[in-house]
């Protein structure tokens, strides 16, 4: 799926460049003038018309696009309709005729065919002075479905106007296709988060409640604290919005998870946290760390006789933050792990780790894939490199429902994990 989205994005950009080239050929002066000026003007107008369309075909996007396309085409008027043929925006002259073009627009959308309307076939009170001579209506078709229509009203009847309308319609379709691509990427990211939430094992929930229940009589204060940690953990993990979070928020959630697991495994599970304060504000994909820590506990420490230690380190690395999740558990054969990660979508093995690896590559690029070191009986070490700044990546405010306010308790909402300044984290080698 991710590869398909990347290919579609490349095709969209390539098609935009081709449309621009064809449009410049159509609009360049025949006798004099600079082709370079025409290119620059076309690029400027198209660049101004494109951004709003990347959010979909709305009235605001149509209003923004029509005014720039009108200036670029230097025609009488430009209109854009929705998928039902209803006019979203109209800019230019001959305003009395957009009513006359309403029915032809609906018909062009319904039939998915371009329409060519002559002014002489319309009733007009300004027959001699009306600037309109012809109108071209081009359906905007994306993935075989009509999403709207472009209406170009011209002062002359020429084949060049029809070709220009076709090319501009193609450009609009590309932008709307890219808008759908962006939405598909968002939906994919949300689906991956839902998959990660599904990985929160029902056994973990059952075992947590069982642990809390066992402490109610013997240590009620500890039971109350664990119950609050569990409430905060579930509220954060199942929040309804947000694709990104700060590293501080992610680490706070890990702290709650490990506190609960330590109460369950007792002396069999040891934890080391070493977090540099300067990287706490770094933005990471939501739920990017908890599945890796859970993997260390469940598949590394829980299967090792006598238990072991899970370590979480985060420190500054120039323009990046370096995050290391390590355990000294049972480990596994590296070749087998890589095969499991490659086929995780088919087998279900290590879905959490495979999901995180895929999300890091999708958000930041292939060079930010997980670095995994493991061997049988030598534990596992997973390293994440996260850029301190990346375009389009910013923390989202959680959209907790009003019902969740009851979960805050007397202490209020969960606070970021307090940390102290630490020296640089040394290089670690599993099993050493």
The class by helix and strand makeup works out as alpha+beta
Rg computed from alpha carbons, rounded to a whole number of angstroms: 29 Å
How many helices does DSSP assign? 12
Spatial order of strands in the largest sheet = 2-1-5-4-3
- How many strands, what sense, and barrel or not for the largest sheet? 5 strands, antiparallel
Q: Let me know the number of strands.
A: 12
- Give the overall silhouette: elongated
Helix content: 40-55%
Mean pLDDT figure: 76
> First CA to last CA: what distance?
39 Å
Protein name: Histidine kinase
Region (Disordered): 395-432
Domain Histidine kinase/HSP90-like ATPase: 280-388
Coiled coil: 174-201
Quick synopsis:
The protein is an alpha+beta fold and 432 residues long. The chain is 47% helix and 18% strand.
Provide structural commentary:
This protein has 432 residues and is an alpha+beta fold. The protein has 12 helices and 12 strands. The strands form 3 sheets. It has a 5-stranded antiparallel β-sheet, sandwiched between helices. It has a 5-stranded mixed β-sheet with strand order 7-9-10-12-11, with helices on one face. The longest helix is centred in the middle third of the chain and has 41 residues. The protein starts with a helix and ends in a 45-residue tail after the last strand. The relative contact order is 0.08. The N terminus and C terminus are likely disordered.
């Amino acid at each position: 799926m991710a590869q398909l989205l990347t290919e579609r994005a490349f095709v969209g950009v390539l098609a935009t460049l081709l449309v621009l080239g064809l449009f410049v050929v159509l609009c360049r002066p025949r006798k004099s003038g600079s082709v370079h000026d025409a290119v620059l003007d076309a690029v400027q107008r198209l660049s101004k018309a494109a951004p709003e369309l990347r959010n979909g075909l709305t009235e605001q996007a149509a209003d923004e696009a029509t005014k720039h396309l009108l200036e670029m085409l230097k025609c009488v008027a430009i209109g854009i309709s929705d998928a039902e043929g209803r006019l979203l925006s109209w800019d230019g002259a001959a305003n009395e005729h957009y009513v006359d073009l309403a029915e032809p627009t609906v018909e062009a959308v319904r039939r998915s065919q371009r329409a060519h309307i002559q002014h002489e076939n319309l009733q007009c009170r300004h027959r001699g002075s009306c600037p309109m001579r012809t109108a071209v209506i081009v359906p905007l078709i994306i993935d075989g479905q009509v999403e709207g229509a472009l209406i170009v009203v011209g002062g002359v009847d020429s084949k060049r106007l029809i070709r220009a309308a076709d090319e501009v319609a193609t450009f609009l379709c590309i932008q709307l296709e890219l808008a759908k691509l962006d939405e598909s990427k968002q939906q994919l990211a949300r689906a991956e988060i839902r998959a990660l939430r599904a990985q929160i094992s029902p056994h973990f929930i059952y075992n947590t409640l069982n642990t809390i229940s066992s402490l109610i009589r013997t240590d009620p204060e500890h039971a109350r604290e664990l119950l609050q940690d569990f409430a905060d953990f579930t509220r954060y993990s199942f929040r309804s919005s947000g694709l990104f979070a700060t590293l501080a928020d992610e680490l706070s959630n890990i702290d709650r998870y490990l506190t609960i697991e330590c109460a369950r495994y007792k002396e069999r599970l040891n934890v080391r946290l070493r977090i540099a304060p300067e990287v706490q504000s770094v933005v990471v994909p939501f739920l990017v760390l908890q599945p890796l820590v859970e993997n260390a506990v469940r598949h590394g420490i829980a299967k090792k006789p006598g238990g072991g230690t899970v370590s979480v380190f985060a420190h500054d690395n120039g323009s990046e933050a370096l995050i290391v999740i390590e355990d000294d558990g049972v480990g596994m054969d590296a070749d087998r792990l890589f095969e499991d990660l490659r086929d995780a979508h088919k087998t279900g093995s290590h879905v959490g780790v495979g999901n995180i690896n895929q999300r890091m590559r999708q958000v930041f690029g292939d060079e930010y894939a997980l670095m995994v070191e493991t061997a049988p009986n030598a534990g596992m070490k997973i390293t994440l490199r996260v850029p301190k700044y990346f375009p389009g990546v910013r923390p989202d405010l959680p959209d907790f429902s009003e019902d969740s306010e009851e979960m805050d308790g007397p202490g209020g909402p969960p606070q970021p994990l307090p940390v102290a300044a630490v020296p640089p984290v040394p290089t670690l080698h599993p099993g050493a």
